[in-house]
């Protein structure tokens, strides 16, 4: 379902939140680190560079992404696995568990937080960021097109939005014995190229939609969506302005 080349088309915009998240992770010398939703592994390798003494495991549910990650050179101690983000079990308790823009694909975050905390060692850190732009025009237009009679039988009205509020994440994690630092940031991206917002969505949100439709109907879906996105997000000489909100959580487990 996933296309590594399409996903990395806006590499800088997708990487920036990871570094902002990582800047708030204060762990000196962990030995077990995991990256859930590692994609092509570029940011997993950053974790290995920061903590060269650690075993760093990148996990992704996409075979295509993991194959691409394994093809690229990695520091010693880095490995990549195909696995379910909620159900994957580390070989030893983790001192750092990071997830960058992946957990929104997993339903029921109330239960998910408990499963993630259970993977942690005492004093370990869970750090994740998730998109919080599901009410943006981009997502509303995708749902508008998926409800059209041509596509609705295969797609339905839209998928659930599993992302919780910052207050809810703090409450869930505090109840599990974690000390929580949580914040939200809205980025203004100036995306280059033609149909830039459509190209952004083709790397993420539209992947399961197109996989469900197949090639011919997928092309028809994109042809319906493209003009709507161009109207909602007019391009300028500097690029196409695209507001994108993300939620960040860094939580430390007690001793």
TrEMBL record:
Which ranges of the sequence are coiled-coil? none
Swiss-Prot/TrEMBL GO biological process terms: methylation
Q: Which domain of life does this protein belong to?
A: Bacteria
Keyword vocabulary terms for this entry? Methyltransferase, Transferase
The chain positions of domain Methyltransferase read 33-122
Q: Where is the signal peptide?
A: none
Matches recorded under Pfam families: Methyltransf_25
Reply yes or no: does the keyword rRNA processing apply.
no
Question: What CDD domains does this protein's entry cite?
Answer: AdoMet_MTases
Q: Which GO terms describe its molecular function?
A: trans-aconitate 2-methyltransferase activity
Q: What is this protein called?
A: Trans-aconitate methyltransferase
Q: Origin organism of this chain?
A: Myxococcus stipitatus (strain DSM 14675 / JCM 12634 / Mx s8)
